Amino acid sequence: MSLFRLNRKKLHGMLLDHPEDGNERCAACDAACCRGFPTVELTADEYARLESLGAKRLQFTLDGHYYLIIENGCEFLYGNRCSIYEDRPEICRLFVCSSDD
Ligand code: SF4
User: Fold this and answer.
1) What pLDDT score does 56 carry?
2) Is 53 inside a domain boundary?
3) Tens of pLDDT along 50-68?
4) Domain extent at residue 52
5) C-alpha–C-alpha distance, residues 37 and 99, integer Å
6) For atom 2 of ligand 1, which residue has the closest CA?
7) From ligand 1's centre to the CA of 12, what distance in Å?
8) CB atoms within 10 A of CB 78
9) Second label for 85, Cα 20 to 30 Å away, from 9, 22, 40, 94?
């Protein structure tokens, strides 16, 4: 038995130059980007905003980097949807992914 699934989709991700928004943009997504990375890097303002929204998995380093830990799925993900879509970090707005098909 193969350890690799032949029908598995290969996803490609990239950061855009400018944020793209609109509810239809993420409507068909199964939130691979919200589950597929260990962290989202934040600005200090985003860190404070997410903290005020109740984020529990925040982390900062002494050299001035701020993170939301999303390993095994972001805490703001409900089903396949971002529950703080209007307040999500800039990196989340810039990221797009697509499959090979
Ligand atoms: S904040 Fe929203 S868009 Fe960003 S990783 Fe979490 S669920 Fe996904």
Assistant:
1) 98
2) yes
3) 999 999 999 999 999 999 9
4) 38-95
5) 17
6) 82
7) 17
8) 11
9) 9
Choose among 26, 66, 73: nearest CA to 50: 66
Ligand 1 contacts CB of residue 76 (under 6 A): yes
Q: Are 58 and 51 in contact (CB under 8 A)?
A: yes
56 lies in a domain?
Answer: yes
**Over 70: is that where the pLDDT of 3 sits?**
no
- Residues β-bridged to residue 14: 96
- Per the document, the length of the chain is 101
Model pLDDT for residues 77-93, shown as the tens digit of each residue: 998 889 999 999 999 98
Number of structural domains found in the chain: 1
Is 86 domain-assigned? yes
Q: What is the pTM of this model?
A: 0.81
**Residue at 100 is within a domain:** no
Of the residues 84, 91, 96, which should be mutated to test ligand 1's pocket, given the most ligand atoms within 8 Å of the CB?
Answer: 84
Q: How far apart are the first and last CA of the chain?
A: 25
